[in-house]
Amino acid sequence: MNINPEIVNEISEQLLAKASAKQFVYRNTKEVFKQFKSNLNELALQIETKVKACDDCVDVKYTENNEFEAQIQFSGDVLVFNMHTNVFTFEETNLIHTTDYVQKDPTNAYCGMIEVYNFLSDSLKYQRMNDTGYLISRIFINKDNSFIIEGERPMIELNKGLGNGFVTEEFIQQIIEQCMDYAISFDLWAPPYQSVKEVTVSQKFITSGLTLHQTSKRMGFKMQHEIKPLE
């Protein structure tokens, strides 16, 4: 088998350059996620002490589901923090690629990702498989610990731009607190009568006494990108 040595060298160099950069980003994101978990645990303990002194029925609990997922439950809400195990970059048309920071070193656009989902506590407690959770924020972190945030206000107001904003313990605490505040701010509304007027026999038997319909906060609010501007 005749293998072109130039091709071998080219592929090897590209692999080393990209793989090394991505591995560094992965390890860096993993360290940041450890700090997220530590802050979540500490915050849960502090809030639990505060609320239990007034009402013993209000649950506040931190749970580490596995190495890449942790959650904080506060009464009827759960925030699930998930670190993706892959490293991402952005599509070629993204404005990130036009910045001096990325043009100087394209590997600065490689980012790890931490996602924050909001679920109803009962959806997880009773394993209501048709219920839904919603992504309220995701944080991208590169090799320099610089970050950008996608999501809803006020979380995205922490953005300073890749190469300008850097992860600190203060930032981690801010994003956790703002995600919790965002989740608490929206109550669960009863769905429109017509939308739950009918159920199937299979729904009746599958649910076995639990709610027959999909339940989520989506019925009570819209994400920012869904709100139509006034004409």
Question: Beta fraction of the residues?
Answer: 15-25%
Oligomer: single chain
Work out the radius of gyration. Answer: 22 Å
- How are the strands ordered across the major sheet? 1-2-3-4-5-6
What is the fold's blueprint, element by element?
Blueprint: H1 5-52, E1 60-66, E2 69-74, E3 77-83, H2 100-104, E4 112-120, H3 121-125, E5 134-141, E6 147-151, H4 169-184, H5 201-207
Antiparallel strand pairs: 1-2, 2-3, 3-4, 4-5, 5-6
Can you give a write-up of this model?
- This protein is of the alpha+beta class.
- The protein has one domain (5-221).
- It is 35% helix and 18% strand.
- It is built from five helices and six strands.
- The protein has helices at residues 5-52, 100-104, 121-125, 169-184, 201-207; strands spanning 60-66, 69-74, 77-83, 112-120, 134-141, 147-151.
- Strand 2 and strand 3 form a beta hairpin.
- The protein is globular.
- Residues 219-231 have low confidence and may be disordered.
